[in-house]
Amino acid sequence: MQACVNPFAHLGNCATPNGQQQPSARAGQLCDGHGRVVRYLRLSVTDRCNLRCAYCRSDINQKFIPHPKVLRYEEMVRLVGMMASLGVTKLRLTGGEPFARKGCDELLHQLHAHYPSLDLRLTTNGTLLGPHIPMLRSVGVSAVNLSLDSFDRDTFAKVTGRDMLPAVLDSLDGLLRAGIRVKINAVAMRGVNDGQMDDFVHAVRTMPIDLRFIEFMPMGSGTLWGPETFWAAGDIRAEAERRVQLDPVQDDSAEAGPARMFAVRGGKGRLGFITAVSCHFCGTCNRLRLTSDGNLRTCLFDDREYHLRGILRSPHFDDGQLARVVRLACADKPIGADLLKARKKGEAVADKHMVGIGG
Ligand code: SAM
Asked: DSSP 3-state assignment of 341?
């Protein structure tokens, strides 16, 4: 695996943020050709979204998956069950915007009823979340990732194409009042939110949240991505440290994600950095992604997709055969950093936009 200049070296090497070790595989579990054990599935409920985030999609050629190709909820539940039988223990619903699809509550209820031990999570833009918050606890969702790239109303509207910051802030407040853990995802963009560190620092000083800056990833063409909008995690950290003392957090738990987390001295929350571009964490990648039309992606940066929908809908195949396809796909899970490195300068690493994958 490639070495890289790591502004977070004291927390362990790039491939293993926070010094985590990859747990070893038990018999029957999903293991890839690099010895990584897969336990985490991200399921895109829909590719439709009520926001138009400039980093996530392009308005040119934005086509939606036709309805007949979108997996029905019962098909999603069946696929999740098959994945759970292969050792997947954590499931994140994402999109598009999960709540932009009718009946998302019902999906959550069904997933919880069928697989109560599954660690069920959600990534959402928060704009439609408010009425669903009481339901989240009842289906065992203990943490929500909320996308929020700016606390400034004009910037929010410019980035997302919708003037909906107040709705997101209401959801944030509602989640905290409901005792649900909140991780804020902020895509870091030079010329967009790089002048707003005071707001971000204020948020982590005053709220018990994890606020994670995600490095802008070159996904699909026609987004805002470019060398001029890329804001590297090392620079973001320096900007934050001009305002606040950051103390590295060593997290070896299964909870630890790819973010390098820092406690904010004197504050209620934590700041984190997801260095997807400047310093990869492929060594601990334990995830698969499933698009809403039933395509399995083994790496965010790899456009090869394994079409499970046809197998799922065919009367000639059962779950055992589906599982076999997933195992074969998983065995070939690449190192995303290699794909990133191999791409042509200035070009996207994958053709598909994030809105169609789920992040
Ligand atoms: N609609 C939901 C939301 O906004 O959270 C879920 C889908 S969205 C694709 C999931 C995550 O991907 C969000 O946190 C978003 O910030 C992140 N994301 C999208 N495009 C990105 C990019 N080009 N680089 C980094 N993160 C990106």
From this structure: helix
- What topology does CATH give the domain 36-57+70-356? TIM Barrel (3.20.20)
* Residue 264 CA to ligand 1 centre (angstroms): 24
Task: Examine the pLDDT at 336 and tell me if it is beyond 90.
Answer: yes
56 has binding-site annotation: yes
Ligand 1 atom closest to residue 357's alpha carbon, by position in its atom list: 9
- In DSSP terms, 288 is beta-bridged to 41
- Cα-to-centroid distance, 223 and ligand 1 (Å): 12
Domain boundaries, the chain: 36-57+70-356
Closest among 63, 337, 70 to 220, alpha carbons compared: 63
Give the DSSP letter string of 211-239: EEEEEPP-BSSSSS-STTTB--HHHHHHH
Residue 96, marked binder: yes
The answer to whether residue 12 scores a pLDDT higher than 60 is no
pLDDT recorded at residue 19: 44
Over residues 277-322, the pLDDT tens digits come to 999 999 999 999 999 999 999 999 999 999 999 999 999 999 999 9
pTM: 0.94
